[in-house]
Amino acid sequence: MKIDIVSIFPAYFEVLGLSLLGKARNRGLLEVGVHDLRDVTTDKHRTVDGTPAGGGAGMVMKPEPWGVMLDQLLAASPCVGGNAATANAGASVAESTGDAECAVGSAESAATGPLLIFPSPAGEVFNQQMARELATEKHLIFGCGRYEGIDQRVFDEYEQRARVKLISIGDYVLNGGEVATIAMIEAIARLLPGMVGNPESLVEESHEDGLLEYPSYTQPAVWRDRAVPEVLLSGNHRKIAEWRHEQRIARTKRVRPELLTDQTENQQAF
Ligand code: SAM
């Protein structure tokens, strides 16, 4: 999978070189490009924001740098399985449409080309199901907003030429899209084949089948007078599976009752 990220704070993404994500990048499972939006500005102050049309507080991100940057990234996208076009500075999407294998900008690419994701508190709420769907994409481009967000015309423009999604990571407001992008990338990338050592560890996790995970324990058997539940030390796999299933239902009922449906509640332990 290829991921491009556009931000005015590229240093945020240094964490993507750590831990499993860093290893995945070293092994070639994941390719990440981080792009500073200010690099495509043309004025001395590298301006990316302006006052809101119609007045009001704060600043809004100007459309021009986004246009230049996103045109370049779309032109360079490996998109529908063809060869990546060259990311010439200033190359426009229109110029790249001549490449039959990489039909960015065409009607075809609107269905199959790169997916542009703009983190936004006004977007669809991110969840595990969405992470699973996004993990099947070849090329994701994240555009990180700052200030009061990005000029609406950027979304309108690229919706005509590619697939665009506004995604929220929850009902609260962050200062910028960087942390939201990192959270989404981590959730998506850990689902890529070969990413997690034991793929079974993904199956039993919270949100995989609508229930939260059971509580986990390790050694020692007793810590500060708190014992690991006996059943987990019994060696009886059937009983352990039943206990874990009951724990999942009880925890989901207690913490996230809205997740419980007839289907999730009546799932079998094994
Ligand atoms: N004025 C915007 C609104 O009310 O919808 C909020 C702008 S916020 C201060 C700046 C940027 O942070 C947004 O453009 C978005 O990229 C990011 N952001 C803030 N909260 C977010 C959330 N819950 N999920 C995803 N991105 C978020």
UniProtKB/TrEMBL annotation:
Protein location: Cytoplasm
Gene Ontology MF: a single term: tRNA (guanine(37)-N1)-methyltransferase activity
Residues that coordinate or bind S-adenosyl-L-methionine: 145, 169-174
Keywords: Cytoplasm, Methyltransferase, S-adenosyl-L-methionine, Transferase, tRNA processing
CDD domains (UniProt xref): TrmD-like (cd18080)
Main location group: cytoplasm
Biological process, per Gene Ontology: tRNA N1-guanine methylation
Catalytic activity as recorded in UniProt: guanosine(37) in tRNA + S-adenosyl-L-methionine = N(1)-methylguanosine(37) in tRNA + S-adenosyl-L-homocysteine + H(+)
EC number: 2.1.1.228
GO cellular component, one term: cytosol
Domain tRNA methyltransferase TRMD/TRM10-type residue range list: 1-76, 108-261
Family assignment from sequence similarity: Belongs to the RNA methyltransferase TrmD family.
Physiological role: Specifically methylates guanosine-37 in various tRNAs.
Protein name: tRNA (guanine-N(1)-)-methyltransferase
Gene source species: Canibacter oris
Record lineage: Bacteria, Bacillati, Actinomycetota, Actinomycetes, Micrococcales
Encoding gene (name): trmD
